[in-house]
Specification:
Helices cover about 70% and strands about 0% of the residues. It has ten helices and two strands, in the order H-H-E-E-H-H-H-H-H-H-H-H. The protein has a two-stranded antiparallel sheet with strand order 1-2. A hairpin with a 2-residue loop joins strand 1 and strand 2. Helix 2 (about 40-60) runs antiparallel to helix 3 (about 70-100), helix 3 (about 70-100) runs parallel beside helix 6 and helix 9 (about 220-235) packs across helix 10.
Length: about 270
Protein backbone atom coordinates (compact mmCIF):
# COMPACT_ATOMS: atom_id res chain seq x y z
CA UNK A 1 0.00 0.00 0.00
CA UNK A 2 1.34 3.49 -0.78
CA UNK A 3 2.38 5.67 2.11
CA UNK A 4 -0.35 8.30 2.57
CA UNK A 5 1.03 9.83 5.73
CA UNK A 6 2.84 12.63 3.91
CA UNK A 7 0.74 15.03 1.83
CA UNK A 8 0.99 14.82 -1.96
CA UNK A 9 1.90 18.22 -3.32
CA UNK A 10 1.39 19.36 -6.89
CA UNK A 11 4.52 19.82 -8.99
CA UNK A 12 6.16 23.17 -8.57
CA UNK A 13 5.94 25.56 -11.52
CA UNK A 14 9.07 25.78 -13.59
CA UNK A 15 11.02 28.97 -12.88
CA UNK A 16 12.33 31.19 -15.68
CA UNK A 17 14.43 33.82 -13.92
CA UNK A 18 15.33 35.79 -17.07
CA UNK A 19 14.49 34.33 -20.48
CA UNK A 20 12.35 31.32 -21.26
CA UNK A 21 14.77 29.97 -23.85
CA UNK A 22 12.84 26.73 -24.29
CA UNK A 23 9.59 28.54 -25.03
CA UNK A 24 11.26 31.15 -27.23
CA UNK A 25 13.05 28.47 -29.23
CA UNK A 26 9.81 26.51 -29.65
CA UNK A 27 7.93 29.57 -30.91
CA UNK A 28 10.74 30.41 -33.34
CA UNK A 29 10.91 26.85 -34.65
CA UNK A 30 7.13 26.83 -35.04
CA UNK A 31 7.28 29.96 -37.21
CA UNK A 32 10.12 28.62 -39.34
CA UNK A 33 8.61 25.16 -39.84
CA UNK A 34 5.31 26.79 -40.69
CA UNK A 35 6.67 28.35 -43.89
CA UNK A 36 9.07 25.51 -44.70
CA UNK A 37 6.15 23.05 -44.84
CA UNK A 38 4.80 24.97 -47.84
CA UNK A 39 8.16 25.73 -49.44
CA UNK A 40 6.79 25.82 -52.97
CA UNK A 41 4.53 28.68 -51.97
CA UNK A 42 6.83 30.54 -49.57
CA UNK A 43 10.25 30.03 -51.20
CA UNK A 44 9.87 28.98 -54.83
CA UNK A 45 6.98 31.30 -55.77
CA UNK A 46 8.78 34.54 -54.73
CA UNK A 47 11.82 33.50 -56.76
CA UNK A 48 9.67 32.99 -59.85
CA UNK A 49 8.10 36.41 -59.25
CA UNK A 50 11.52 38.06 -58.99
CA UNK A 51 12.68 36.43 -62.23
CA UNK A 52 9.51 37.55 -64.02
CA UNK A 53 10.06 41.12 -62.84
CA UNK A 54 13.64 40.87 -64.03
CA UNK A 55 12.55 39.65 -67.45
CA UNK A 56 9.72 42.14 -67.92
CA UNK A 57 11.55 45.28 -66.82
CA UNK A 58 14.85 44.50 -68.51
CA UNK A 59 13.08 43.71 -71.79
CA UNK A 60 10.64 46.63 -71.48
CA UNK A 61 13.44 49.17 -71.07
CA UNK A 62 15.79 47.53 -73.51
CA UNK A 63 16.95 50.95 -74.66
CA UNK A 64 18.45 51.64 -71.23
CA UNK A 65 21.80 49.88 -71.35
CA UNK A 66 23.47 51.32 -68.26
CA UNK A 67 22.60 53.16 -65.06
CA UNK A 68 25.48 54.88 -63.29
CA UNK A 69 27.94 52.86 -65.31
CA UNK A 70 26.43 49.41 -64.61
CA UNK A 71 24.12 47.29 -66.72
CA UNK A 72 20.44 47.93 -66.09
CA UNK A 73 19.86 44.30 -65.07
CA UNK A 74 22.64 44.59 -62.50
CA UNK A 75 21.10 47.83 -61.20
CA UNK A 76 17.63 46.31 -60.84
CA UNK A 77 18.69 42.99 -59.26
CA UNK A 78 19.42 44.23 -55.69
CA UNK A 79 16.09 46.04 -55.61
CA UNK A 80 14.24 42.89 -56.64
CA UNK A 81 15.99 40.88 -53.94
CA UNK A 82 15.09 43.50 -51.35
CA UNK A 83 11.46 43.47 -52.54
CA UNK A 84 11.29 39.76 -51.79
CA UNK A 85 12.83 40.27 -48.33
CA UNK A 86 10.33 43.02 -47.50
CA UNK A 87 7.24 41.25 -48.77
CA UNK A 88 7.95 37.82 -47.32
CA UNK A 89 9.00 39.01 -43.87
CA UNK A 90 5.76 41.00 -43.63
CA UNK A 91 3.64 38.12 -44.93
CA UNK A 92 5.02 35.59 -42.45
CA UNK A 93 4.30 37.35 -39.17
CA UNK A 94 1.05 38.99 -40.32
CA UNK A 95 -0.49 35.80 -41.71
CA UNK A 96 0.64 33.72 -38.73
CA UNK A 97 -1.11 35.98 -36.22
CA UNK A 98 -4.22 36.60 -38.32
CA UNK A 99 -4.75 32.90 -39.04
CA UNK A 100 -4.24 32.09 -35.37
CA UNK A 101 -6.91 34.62 -34.42
CA UNK A 102 -9.35 33.20 -36.97
CA UNK A 103 -8.71 29.62 -35.90
CA UNK A 104 -8.98 30.42 -32.21
CA UNK A 105 -5.38 29.45 -31.52
CA UNK A 106 -4.13 32.62 -29.84
CA UNK A 107 -4.46 30.85 -26.50
CA UNK A 108 -1.68 28.52 -27.60
CA UNK A 109 0.65 31.55 -27.58
CA UNK A 110 -0.75 33.33 -24.53
CA UNK A 111 -1.02 30.34 -22.17
CA UNK A 112 2.68 29.31 -22.12
CA UNK A 113 4.97 31.29 -19.79
CA UNK A 114 6.22 33.67 -22.50
CA UNK A 115 6.71 37.36 -21.86
CA UNK A 116 5.64 40.03 -24.41
CA UNK A 117 9.31 40.48 -25.32
CA UNK A 118 9.65 36.76 -26.03
CA UNK A 119 6.53 36.83 -28.19
CA UNK A 120 7.94 39.71 -30.22
CA UNK A 121 11.33 38.02 -30.51
CA UNK A 122 9.85 34.67 -31.58
CA UNK A 123 7.44 36.03 -34.20
CA UNK A 124 9.91 38.66 -35.39
CA UNK A 125 12.87 36.31 -35.74
CA UNK A 126 10.76 33.71 -37.54
CA UNK A 127 9.47 36.25 -40.05
CA UNK A 128 12.92 37.78 -40.56
CA UNK A 129 14.30 34.29 -41.20
CA UNK A 130 11.80 33.76 -44.00
CA UNK A 131 12.58 37.15 -45.54
CA UNK A 132 16.34 36.58 -45.47
CA UNK A 133 16.05 33.00 -46.74
CA UNK A 134 13.88 34.10 -49.67
CA UNK A 135 16.39 36.88 -50.39
CA UNK A 136 19.27 34.40 -50.48
CA UNK A 137 17.37 32.03 -52.79
CA UNK A 138 16.38 34.97 -55.04
CA UNK A 139 20.00 36.08 -55.22
CA UNK A 140 21.08 32.60 -56.30
CA UNK A 141 18.37 32.52 -58.97
CA UNK A 142 19.18 35.99 -60.33
CA UNK A 143 22.97 35.57 -60.48
CA UNK A 144 22.95 33.67 -63.83
CA UNK A 145 21.14 36.63 -65.44
CA UNK A 146 22.92 39.56 -63.77
CA UNK A 147 26.55 39.84 -62.73
CA UNK A 148 26.43 41.19 -59.19
CA UNK A 149 29.67 42.34 -57.57
CA UNK A 150 29.94 42.63 -53.79
CA UNK A 151 31.41 46.02 -52.95
CA UNK A 152 30.41 46.44 -49.27
CA UNK A 153 29.33 43.21 -47.52
CA UNK A 154 28.48 45.06 -44.30
CA UNK A 155 25.82 47.10 -46.10
CA UNK A 156 24.23 43.98 -47.58
CA UNK A 157 23.98 42.37 -44.15
CA UNK A 158 22.98 45.51 -42.25
CA UNK A 159 20.24 46.71 -44.57
CA UNK A 160 19.07 43.18 -45.44
CA UNK A 161 18.64 42.09 -41.82
CA UNK A 162 17.31 45.53 -40.83
CA UNK A 163 14.68 45.44 -43.58
CA UNK A 164 13.62 41.91 -42.60
CA UNK A 165 13.17 42.94 -38.95
CA UNK A 166 11.29 46.13 -39.84
CA UNK A 167 8.80 44.25 -41.99
CA UNK A 168 8.53 41.43 -39.46
CA UNK A 169 7.50 43.96 -36.79
CA UNK A 170 5.11 45.71 -39.19
CA UNK A 171 3.60 42.30 -39.92
CA UNK A 172 3.09 41.68 -36.20
CA UNK A 173 1.35 45.05 -35.85
CA UNK A 174 -0.85 44.40 -38.89
CA UNK A 175 -1.68 40.86 -37.73
CA UNK A 176 -2.74 42.06 -34.29
CA UNK A 177 -4.71 44.99 -35.68
CA UNK A 178 -6.53 43.16 -38.49
CA UNK A 179 -9.87 41.60 -37.70
CA UNK A 180 -10.43 40.06 -41.14
CA UNK A 181 -8.45 39.30 -44.25
CA UNK A 182 -9.79 42.43 -45.97
CA UNK A 183 -7.92 44.54 -43.44
CA UNK A 184 -4.68 42.73 -44.20
CA UNK A 185 -5.23 43.05 -47.95
CA UNK A 186 -5.78 46.80 -47.52
CA UNK A 187 -2.48 47.21 -45.68
CA UNK A 188 -0.63 45.17 -48.31
CA UNK A 189 -2.21 46.79 -51.38
CA UNK A 190 -2.43 50.41 -50.23
CA UNK A 191 0.66 50.74 -48.02
CA UNK A 192 3.30 48.06 -48.55
CA UNK A 193 3.13 47.66 -52.33
CA UNK A 194 3.06 51.40 -53.23
CA UNK A 195 5.93 52.17 -50.87
CA UNK A 196 7.93 49.29 -52.35
CA UNK A 197 7.41 50.20 -56.00
CA UNK A 198 7.93 53.95 -55.41
CA UNK A 199 11.28 53.47 -53.68
CA UNK A 200 13.69 53.42 -56.61
CA UNK A 201 13.64 49.68 -57.21
CA UNK A 202 13.51 50.04 -61.00
CA UNK A 203 14.74 53.60 -61.52
CA UNK A 204 16.89 56.38 -60.14
CA UNK A 205 14.97 58.63 -57.78
CA UNK A 206 17.09 61.58 -58.90
CA UNK A 207 15.39 61.41 -62.32
CA UNK A 208 11.92 61.93 -60.89
CA UNK A 209 10.33 65.37 -61.30
CA UNK A 210 9.51 67.43 -58.26
CA UNK A 211 7.75 67.04 -55.87
CA UNK A 212 8.04 63.25 -56.31
CA UNK A 213 11.81 63.28 -55.95
CA UNK A 214 11.57 65.02 -52.59
CA UNK A 215 8.70 62.85 -51.42
CA UNK A 216 10.71 59.70 -52.24
CA UNK A 217 13.29 60.75 -49.65
CA UNK A 218 10.59 60.42 -46.97
CA UNK A 219 9.95 56.81 -47.97
CA UNK A 220 11.91 54.53 -45.61
CA UNK A 221 11.91 51.76 -48.23
CA UNK A 222 14.00 54.02 -50.47
CA UNK A 223 16.82 54.07 -47.91
CA UNK A 224 16.60 50.31 -47.36
CA UNK A 225 16.80 49.50 -51.06
CA UNK A 226 19.44 52.14 -51.77
CA UNK A 227 21.64 50.96 -48.90
CA UNK A 228 21.22 47.33 -49.95
CA UNK A 229 22.13 48.22 -53.56
CA UNK A 230 25.17 50.12 -52.29
CA UNK A 231 26.41 46.89 -50.74
CA UNK A 232 26.56 45.30 -54.20
CA UNK A 233 27.45 48.21 -56.50
CA UNK A 234 29.28 50.61 -54.20
CA UNK A 235 27.06 53.49 -55.35
CA UNK A 236 24.23 55.19 -53.45
CA UNK A 237 21.75 57.94 -54.18
CA UNK A 238 21.03 58.74 -50.55
CA UNK A 239 23.09 59.63 -47.50
CA UNK A 240 24.10 56.24 -46.07
CA UNK A 241 24.45 57.62 -42.56
CA UNK A 242 20.83 58.78 -42.63
CA UNK A 243 19.72 55.42 -44.02
CA UNK A 244 21.65 53.43 -41.41
CA UNK A 245 20.33 55.59 -38.56
CA UNK A 246 16.76 55.42 -39.86
CA UNK A 247 16.98 51.62 -40.09
CA UNK A 248 18.14 51.32 -36.48
CA UNK A 249 15.46 53.73 -35.25
CA UNK A 250 12.70 51.86 -37.09
CA UNK A 251 13.83 48.47 -35.79
CA UNK A 252 13.90 49.70 -32.19
CA UNK A 253 10.76 51.83 -32.50
CA UNK A 254 8.58 49.22 -34.19
CA UNK A 255 9.89 46.53 -31.86
CA UNK A 256 8.81 48.67 -28.89
CA UNK A 257 5.33 49.19 -30.40
CA UNK A 258 4.95 45.42 -30.88
CA UNK A 259 6.08 44.89 -27.30
CA UNK A 260 3.42 47.28 -26.02
CA UNK A 261 0.71 45.66 -28.17
CA UNK A 262 1.46 42.24 -26.71
CA UNK A 263 1.82 43.70 -23.23
CA UNK A 264 -1.67 45.21 -23.24
CA UNK A 265 -3.15 42.30 -25.21
CA UNK A 266 -4.25 44.49 -28.09
CA UNK A 267 -7.22 42.75 -29.76
CA UNK A 268 -6.12 39.36 -28.40
CA UNK A 269 -7.33 39.64 -24.79
CA UNK A 270 -10.80 40.50 -23.60
Amino acid sequence: MPDTSSPILPPQPRAYPRVNWAGLSTLYQREVRRFLKVGMQTLAAPVVTALLYMLVFVVAVGGVKEVHGVAYGTFVAPGLIMMQILGNAFANSSSSLLQSKFNGLMGDFLTPPLTPAEHVAGFGAGAATRGILVGVVSLAAILPFASLPIAQPWAILYFGIGAALIMAFLGIMAGLWSEKFDHMAAVTNFVIMPMTFLSGTFYLVERLPEPFQTLSHYNPFFYLIDGFRYGFLGQAESNLAIGAAMTAVLVLGLGWVCLRMFDVGYKIKS
